[in-house]
Specification:
15 helices, globular
Length: 306
């Protein structure tokens, strides 16, 4: 790839990621936490659930929009194989995905899709599996394409498929921060524990944030967290679990899904919307002192085994 082509790609990405209209949330009177001063580097956050059907993609979308409302530039990587949940929830119809970048038919800026606010979505589809099978030359080309992202986004949110497949583990290992989403269902608890156990015992991952969804209130969320802690404390010595917070059960969530719009846009005063505002603030304040890798380039290199 010539220097001129790289410059064109970077310029195209900058024009796609910057100077976009503010989220429609800006007109709402909700109290949002103030953004902290000078965050360093791009945070790479994987959001997983051991079990499907726990509302993970809705959480990813609304958390992204809440962070956007705090002034953070967010890119969502849809790493849920072939389901295109992000596209459905946002009413998007992307023509291309990562695989078109990998085979050289499209540029990165052609693949990124605009969501609400300044959010961008990188559709993955079958391209997720292809990421694990690139030649060395393809890996280097892909990393060059992603160079521009270092200065164009603040947070990369990865919506990872449910379960404990190799792909799920693969993305969790590459991410800096790991959020595990859990609901009150017993199977959700056991499947979340299974995912944590695999990442801990086989790959020595020790730091996880627990986020509860569809709970009665914060007390119920903390009770779920306590249950997970009791099990992990007994069987997984040296594990660090942090309670990120709770999203309450809210009928407005299903209404937003049906209308293919984010909850925060349609129902900004709903209990769940207020919870996402709080969660975004919590993530802003969360310490990253335990992280031993600090930027998006590390994430991609670790993901691609470069």
């Amino acid at each position: 790839m010539s220097h001129h082509q790289k410059m064109d790609q970077a310029q195209g990405l900058r024009s796609k990621m910057g100077n976009n209209p503010q989220s429609s949330l800006s007109s709402t009177p909700l109290e949002w936490p103030k953004p902290p001063v000078a965050a360093q580097g791009v945070r790479v956050i994987a959001i997983s659930s051991g079990k499907g059907g726990v509302g993970k993609t809705s959480v990813v979308v609304n958390l992204a929009l809440a962070l956007d409302r705090l002034g953070k530039r967010v890119l969502i990587l849809d790493a849920d194989l072939g389901l295109a949940n992000i596209d459905i929830l946002l009413g998007l119809a992307p023509k291309y995905n990562i695989s078109h970048v990998l085979n050289g038919s499209k540029r990165l800026e052609d693949v990124l899709v605009s969501g609400p606010g300044r959010i961008r979505v990188m559709p993955a589809s079958s391209g997720v599996q292809e990421l694990t099978k690139l030649t060395d030359e393809q890996k280097l080309i892909f990393l060059e394409l992603l160079d521009g992202l270092e200065t164009e986004i603040d947070i990369l949110l990865i919506d990872i498929a449910a379960g404990i497949s190799d792909t799920v583990v693969y993305f969790n290992l590459a991410a800096q921060e790991k959020i595990i989403l859990v609901t009150p269902e017993p199977t959700s608890l056991t499947d979340a524990y299974a995912l944590i156990k695999i990442l801990y015992t086989r790959h020595n991952e020790r730091h996880f944030k627990i986020l509860t969804n569809a709970v009665k209130d914060d007390a119920a969320g903390k009770a779920i967290f306590a249950k997970i802690c009791r099990v992990t404390d007994h069987f997984l010595d040296g594990l660090s679990l942090d309670y990120l917070g709770a999203v309450p059960h809210d009928p407005c969530m299903s209404k937003a899904v049906i209308q293919q719009r984010p909850l925060l846009e349609l129902f900004p005063h709903s209990p769940a919307a207020k919870a996402f505002a709080t969660l975004a603030g919590q993530l802003q304040k969360a310490s990253s002192s335990h992280l031993n890798h600090g930027n998006i380039q590390f994430f991609w290199k670790r993901l691609l085994h470069v």
